């Protein structure tokens, strides 16, 4: 670069420094910025603009210009690299590397990372042929104490980018990168080990330890351990996992990878695994030896638990032999109950669950560790009793509170131990009786609430739940005694003495509500034991409980938890009364009438409880013997209207109640249809009007979606009782609403689902409807297939065609009355062949798509059609489609387009081939090879001789087919 060039570059640099400073000035106008952006874009299009960028990096201290220059370089490398001369590429590479080496202490860290990324991006495409010194650059940095962190950053990014590159690299290039990188690993590992051994001598040892272990933790996700993890390296790494910091987490991540993988255990492998197992328990000992566990971070604790889980699950035999007295389980027991973070505690419980699962067929271990498992139950029981400090107000996405999750996790462990030692169920009952008697005492003497905190009622919630989880281990007499006690307390606690309504402290009220709701919920799980108990029925206990529940549900002053528990219990109490309804009609009518006539709105109940009450009321209404059918229809009609007070905008509760109340007898479905028909007609009318109106606002689309969902669920529920006239109107409505296809994807899918249901259930003789549906589906599907476009509606369209073929088969292949029942295979006459052909063609096209869900759906569909209707054996299919389908499916296997479905594809090809094995082996396969490009004649000859031997057994056929397609693929690559 001569002096004149330097002057030009210097002037340009100063100019761009000023422009970029102004560009990022908050006071600059958008108009000014727009003009500048145009200048910046023009700069990037200039020839050899990268030379100016290199000069900027060498001489400027303006960070705006430095980042601008790096961004220009990135654009050139990613978009214009192949257009540069080799000399220019080499010059730019060396310039970037030299900037990194010379100025890494001057540039901000993010800029150095950006430059490293640029060189790795170049290497992804050019190394080793056009960038031969890439690894040498890394090694050069690693062996220099002042530049070792740079080298480690280079190596880490190389590992990430070479082994898991973006999808812009071809598979062949990905393989080349990995193979070439593996060749340098021994040398690099030797350097890394030396760095670790000598890091303590450096002033920045913590940074070096962290960076080296980070590189190792990334590499050991893909490296073969057998070759690269030596005992020497293991002993260098082990001390780094003990001190809780980022380095230790990286180190333990490496060990977790090693222990998690499966590989052949050589002598070195066995030594390493056994060392790691013992090392894991030494780490656990270190943690539990400290009085307070809070000094350990959650991240460190999580990785320890992950390793502990792997060690116990995978290396049980080694542990069982090495720790003769089960010390490893003793350590796990102490470690489990030192966890303050609930998620860590739950992960420890998961380890125990995996132990119980693994020991289910090892009676010698079950007896050997009996005392430890019983200790575990005792410790879990103590832990359960701390439930009161855990949140029981906020619900997660699954409708559970933290407290409920906590109780369920602990009780699951107790249940697991009870499965091994049923004897532990007895003390659970004894403890529960102590707690329940305390509660009964307070129920009978509410003044004792003053000393409530001193009572054992506090433990009644977890104890009752544990008792219920172990119900299978009790004698019938004990079960009935427990259930009767629960029943009596449920009645007394809600009706006679609702303690939670007395003036006590807020925390006591909360606990009393929890206790009573738990008793009600538990009773719902035990109630079936009393339904056939004569003494219980004679004492009218069921009627008393039913009255208490309904009265409580009507009482707006009751707490939500009590309402919810009553809603859970109500169905189990009512079902036997409905079975023997003549003995309970007056009571049911008296108590449920307010729900049926709408005098009680139920708005004070939550959605789930409201549904339970309404389902119970509807079941009574439909079962009640004291009403004539006409009256029942009218009452039901009014009741259903009350479930959707806002008309068509509020149909969800109506459908939920009707669906949840089933299944129904045909006579009951007729009554329901008569009652709901006006609503169905109104829904269809509104749907037509709304979809055909000029307005297409989102709220209207939402309403249409609700209406279509309602019609779909009602059709599925009542299709066999609907009048033919209404079904015809419904079908025609959906077929006519062309506007819906572009208005809303969700509406389109729902409408197609309804049409599929109608096809499935409608009269076999309705050929006109079948023809219209096929026409509609094909008109919408063919343009999408032709454009290789697969929006979500495509799946629903294909499903509609599948339903046509499956349930309207006689539309294409009418049964001939002249054919003997003994010769059903002669059923090859075809009607509507043009439509049949088009359907199979569009299905065939789907086997050439990359959309695996569509491919899988249609492959399963044609297989089911073959199973049901012998599709592949039909002369029409054999003549026009058999070879086409087999060719497409073989191509998929050769190209490995859908590897995950290889078995399913092989079975489908086998089923097609089996209709004529001789044709498949002697004609189809040779023709297929002839038509396959990029295979030499000698290769074709080899494949014919070795891979085309006639085989009729499915397992051998699949093996040979896999070998054939693999050979074809390899032959094409040679």
List keywords for this structure.
974 residues; mainly alpha
What's the short version?
The chain is an all-alpha fold and 974 residues long.
Characterization of the model:
The chain is an all-alpha fold. Helix content is 72%, strand content 0%. Mean pLDDT is 88; it is low at 819-826.
Q: Helices and strands: which structural class?
A: mainly alpha
The counted number of beta strands is: 0
Radius of gyration: 37 Å
- Percent in strands: under 5%
Kindly state the percentage of residues in helix.
over 70%
Largest sheet: none
Could you say which overall geometry the principal axes of the C-alpha atoms support?
globular
Helical run tally: 47
Average pLDDT? 88
* Assembly context of the chains: single chain
N-C termini distance: 48 Å
Which segments are poorly predicted (pLDDT under 50) over 5 or more consecutive residues? 819-826
